[in-house]
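re: the backbone from monday

yeah here it is again, tokenized this time
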């Protein structure tokens, strides 16, 4: 009979791959959408999410490029985050989880998660400010709605990272005394 923990780990690995593929497709779609927005704006209505920011582009090119940069960076960072999660899952040995590689990957995950949260928060604040100034930013709010969740998650993952580092130190100390 297969161990329940191992089965859950396999299911989580599959889910991580699915999320990674979905986020990669989203990031790629947004990049293509951006390219078409700049060079062939009439095609945007037929593309991914129909993210038509032509009115914003007409109002201010600088605001258009700045806000689109936030959208692209956040979506790319989310895909990279799940790539690091997949790397962690490949190398994680459940019988001996405390290793430098695992500790470094957990630390990386906390940094990426925090970066996503901070970028999302900054983008949301700038979007709110621009909206007050009369720019049409409504379509972009979906990309940074979860900024506080990412910041909270980063704090939790950072705590886990610190625990893993301490566990590695204790493990190495015990190996030296034997």
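seq for it, each position gets an aa:
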């Amino acid at each position: 009979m297969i161990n329940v923990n191992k089965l859950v780990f396999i299911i989580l690995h599959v889910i991580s791959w699915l999320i990674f593929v979905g986020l990669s497709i989203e990031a790629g779609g947004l990049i293509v959408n951006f390219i078409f927005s700049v060079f062939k704006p009439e095609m945007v209505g037929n593309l991914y999410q129909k993210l038509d920011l032509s009115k914003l582009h007409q109002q201010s090119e600088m605001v258009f490029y700045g806000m689109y940069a936030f959208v692209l960076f956040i979506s790319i960072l989310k895909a990279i985050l799940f790539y690091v999660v997949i790397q962690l899952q490949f190398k994680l040995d459940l019988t001996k989880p405390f290793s430098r590689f695992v500790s470094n990957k957990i630390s990386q995950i906390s940094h990426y998660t925090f970066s996503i949260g901070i970028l999302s928060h900054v983008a949301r604040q700038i979007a709110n400010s621009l909206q007050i100034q009369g720019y049409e930013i409504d379509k972009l709010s979906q990309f940074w709605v979860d900024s506080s969740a990412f910041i909270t998650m980063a704090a939790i993952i950072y705590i886990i990272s610190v625990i893993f580092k301490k566990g590695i130190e204790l493990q190495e100390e015990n190996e030296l005394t034997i």
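The radius of gyration is 21 Å. The CA atoms of residues 84 and 108 lie 8 Å apart.
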